[in-house]
């Protein structure tokens, strides 16, 4: 299954027709890790990463939540990073997901990963153990000192059980190399508070919030669903950035049902099911993650068929009238 793209929008995706962006902006996606017979399918990862770059995606995360990072060994993470950095060939940044509740284990993992070619890390607060804010601060600082690469702070309370308080984010950005935050569980107040922090780029981690967040000033998004229809997400982002808010919202609203459906069963099973329908991977996950239910797969097929069938004639007219 592929999604047709009108000529006008092809021109918008041409790297020569849009200006160079700052880092930590635009549509990033945390790539799934394709598996086959229990092993990582590096060839499938290579092909899929090339497709994502070719579709205009602005940055990739490997081995994050959606990449089933906790189920990968350090060897697999390093080899995956080497494969993907080679396939994107420096066109976009590639970051590596880091997580865990044991500071020393993450430090050991950094040693095992070595220089695997990534430009930085995306790291969540320790999960399960619920440390103090000072403990969270010291955890991030200890890892930053050894990592020697930028770390995007990953605030995802629903998964970790702890919140990165705004004061802690400020303290981290003032003392270490934490150029951006991927913020989840957003409220308007929280987003405003993060956007007010000097020298911090804010990347939206709640897919359905993405456009509201862009309109409020967020710099980018790290979105699992974006990899299911990458050109469409990038096209909506460019429309907002360069052309009309109305045209962008129209595109975003078409993508909203997809984003909602992607989180109705635990991520990344829905993303993998959608990508399997497009032949990018097979629907294999590592425990404790499991494939989607049959009923879910039927709904997903209908949604993807509808998206595929949807013509953009009305959107092209909207673009022309907004110029
Ligand atoms: O893997 C990620 O990074 C993302 N994780 C979030 C989650 O799984 O809760 C969702 C977001 O789209 C990307």
Automatic annotation (TrEMBL):
<dbReference type="InterPro" id="IPR002220">
    <property type="entry name" value="DapA-like"/>
</dbReference>
<keyword id="KW-0220">Diaminopimelate biosynthesis</keyword>
<dbReference type="InterPro" id="IPR020625">
    <property type="entry name" value="Schiff_base-form_aldolases_AS"/>
</dbReference>
<keyword id="KW-0457">Lysine biosynthesis</keyword>
<feature type="binding site">
    <location>
        <position position="66"/>
    </location>
    <ligand>
        <name>pyruvate</name>
    </ligand>
</feature>
<feature type="active site" description="Schiff-base intermediate with substrate">
    <location>
        <position position="182"/>
    </location>
</feature>
<dbReference type="Pfam" id="PF00701">
    <property type="entry name" value="DHDPS"/>
</dbReference>
<keyword id="KW-0028">Amino-acid biosynthesis</keyword>
<dbReference type="GO" id="GO:0019877">
    <property type="term" value="P:diaminopimelate biosynthetic process"/>
</dbReference>
<dbReference type="InterPro" id="IPR013785">
    <property type="entry name" value="Aldolase_TIM"/>
</dbReference>
<dbReference type="GO" id="GO:0008840">
    <property type="term" value="F:4-hydroxy-tetrahydrodipicolinate synthase activity"/>
</dbReference>
<comment type="similarity">
    <text>Belongs to the DapA family.</text>
</comment>
<feature type="binding site">
    <location>
        <position position="222"/>
    </location>
    <ligand>
        <name>pyruvate</name>
    </ligand>
</feature>
<dbReference type="InterPro" id="IPR020624">
    <property type="entry name" value="Schiff_base-form_aldolases_CS"/>
</dbReference>
<comment type="pathway">
    <text>Amino-acid biosynthesis; L-lysine biosynthesis via DAP pathway; (S)-tetrahydrodipicolinate from L-aspartate: step 3/4.</text>
</comment>
<dbReference type="InterPro" id="IPR005263">
    <property type="entry name" value="DapA"/>
</dbReference>
<keyword id="KW-0704">Schiff base</keyword>
<keyword id="KW-0456">Lyase</keyword>
<dbReference type="GO" id="GO:0005829">
    <property type="term" value="C:cytosol"/>
</dbReference>
<comment type="subunit">
    <text>Homotetramer; dimer of dimers.</text>
</comment>
<keyword id="KW-0963">Cytoplasm</keyword>
<dbReference type="GO" id="GO:0009089">
    <property type="term" value="P:lysine biosynthetic process via diaminopimelate"/>
</dbReference>
<feature type="site" description="Part of a proton relay during catalysis">
    <location>
        <position position="65"/>
    </location>
</feature>
<comment type="function">
    <text>Catalyzes the condensation of (S)-aspartate-beta-semialdehyde [(S)-ASA] and pyruvate to 4-hydroxy-tetrahydrodipicolinate (HTPA).</text>
</comment>
<protein>
    <recommendedName>
        <fullName>4-hydroxy-tetrahydrodipicolinate synthase</fullName>
        <ecNumber>4.3.3.7</ecNumber>
    </recommendedName>
</protein>
<feature type="site" description="Part of a proton relay during catalysis">
    <location>
        <position position="128"/>
    </location>
</feature>
<feature type="active site" description="Proton donor/acceptor">
    <location>
        <position position="154"/>
    </location>
</feature>
């Amino acid at each position: 299954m592929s999604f047709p793209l009108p000529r006008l929008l092809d021109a918008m995706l041409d790297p020569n027709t849009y200006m160079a962006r700052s880092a930590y902006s635009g549509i990033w996606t945390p790539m799934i890790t394709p598996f086959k017979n229990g092993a990582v399918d590096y060839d499938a990862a290579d092909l899929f990463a090339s497709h994502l770059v070719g579709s205009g995606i602005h940055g990739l995360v490997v081995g994050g939540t959606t990449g089933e990072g906790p189920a990968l060994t350090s060897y697999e993470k390093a080899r995956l990073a080497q494969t993907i950095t080679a396939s994107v060939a420096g066109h976009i940044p590639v970051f590596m997901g880091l997580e865990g509740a044991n500071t020393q284990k993450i430090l050991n993992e950094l040693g095992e990963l070595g220089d695997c070619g990534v430009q930085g890390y995306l790291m969540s607060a320790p999960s399960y153990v619920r440390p103090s804010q000072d403990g969270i601060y010291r955890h991030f600082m200890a890892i930053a000192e050894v990592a020697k690469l930028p770390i995007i702070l990953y605030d995802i309370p629903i998964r970790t059980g702890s919140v990165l308080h705004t004061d802690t984010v400020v303290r981290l950005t003032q003392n270490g190399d934490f150029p951006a935050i991927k913020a989840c569980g957003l409220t308007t107040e929280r987003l405003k508070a993060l956007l007010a922090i000097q020298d911090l780029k804010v990347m939206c981690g709640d897919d359905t919030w993405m456009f509201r967040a862009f309109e409020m000033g967020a710099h980018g998004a790290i979105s699992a669903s974006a990899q299911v229809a990458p050109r469409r997400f990038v096209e909506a982002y460019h429309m907002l950035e360069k052309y009309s808010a109305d045209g962008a919202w129209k595109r975003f609203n078409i993508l909203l049902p997809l984003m909602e459906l992607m989180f109705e069963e635990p991520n990344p099973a829905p993303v993998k099911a959608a990508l399997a329908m497009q032949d990018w991977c097979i629907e294999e996950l590592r425990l404790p993650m499991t494939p989607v239910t049959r009923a879910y797969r039927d709904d997903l097929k209908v949604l993807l068929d509808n998206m595929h069938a949807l013509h953009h004639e009305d959107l092209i007219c909207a673009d022309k009238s907004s110029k």
